[in-house]
Amino acid sequence: MNKDINIGAVRKNCYRQSKVDGEFMLQMRVPGGVIKAEYLKMAAEIADRWGDGNFHMGTRQTLDFTGIKYEDIDEVNKYIRTYIEGTEGEAGVDMDKVAGKPEQWDPEAGYPTIGARNVTACIGNVHCICGNVNTQDVAKKVEKLVFPSNYHIKCNVSGCPNDCNKANMCDFGIIGIAKIDFHPERCIGCGKCVAVCKHGATRVLSGTPNGIPAKDDCCCTGCGECVRFCPTGAWTRNPKKFYRVIIGGRTGRQTPRAGKVFLNWASEEVVMGALANWQKFSAWALDYKPMYLHGGHLIDRAGYMKFKEMILDGVKLNPECLVAERINWSETEYRSNFSVKAPADHLTAGPGSQDSH
Fold this sequence. Notes:
Blueprint: H1 7-12, E1 15-17, E2 23-28, H2 39-49, E3 55-57, E4 63-69, H3 73-79, H4 81-90, E5 120-121, H5 135-146, E6 155-158, E7 172-182, H6 192-200, E8 205-206, E9 214-215, H7 225-229, E10 235-247, E11 260-266, H8 268-276, H9 278-285, H10 295-302, H11 304-311, E12 322-323
Parallel strand pairs: 5-6, 6-7
Antiparallel strand pairs: 1-2, 2-4, 3-4, 7-10, 8-9, 10-11, 11-12
Helix pairs in contact: 5-8
């Protein structure tokens, strides 16, 4: 059955086109990956009444409902009003504002925009013994800054450098790190911290003749593994929270790549200040014409130096914060006339150091 459907408008409304003509998948946001269990009752109702009885846990921690007919979208949008107002309100989002401008949100029209993408987070230190920060709290603060928006960004929050939430593979990744304080009077010289740092971290700890560990601070990732394994509490996390920010990572069939460190030992105020400039930077990079293009590509388009200038505009850095002077990516190049019989040294190298890649 052929239908005259504006796919772009439906997609902006958070419905994804299906292989079945006239059927769509609704993607409902879950800021920070955690919602109240009571909302699952609504999820079951949506799946059973309008969908095909299933829902998919989206790769960006969304609740995805397949099999929704185009003619039912208006009714579904009216039903999810409570969900949107509840989940976004709990994240501090003012649904009367779109992209920072006072425009009226129609409560019965569903999501006003698909951007930014759902802000994801691991469970963080509310549960995980490795977590350095409350990831859900951070994600909700990010949600308030980037959604709703017609400019796109993928933002992941990980509670520690284990990076279970893949902050290294998105436009703007946030990783909780810890400054570690040492209390020598508690140390018994057991060497457990040295062993765990050697086995699972960056090997910045080493033993000494008197048994007290020595530390090379230059390469500490702030993971906190020494704190976890110390039996006497000689290592403790400093109460002040710090973050590492990764930019420009992405998946995709054409130019996938891991991100690079942009900020290290940044305070929460610095991270949120940078994200508050995201829409301004995106608008400039796209000549104020919103399109479906994610943040890593915008950084490539603008060049790192311009990105750094705009994203840190007005942001007061904390004394500990380090900012990358320059970031260079090297993409893989392919020859269209490459022969499988050619020797390996015929493969061309990457383009070298360029700010815009």
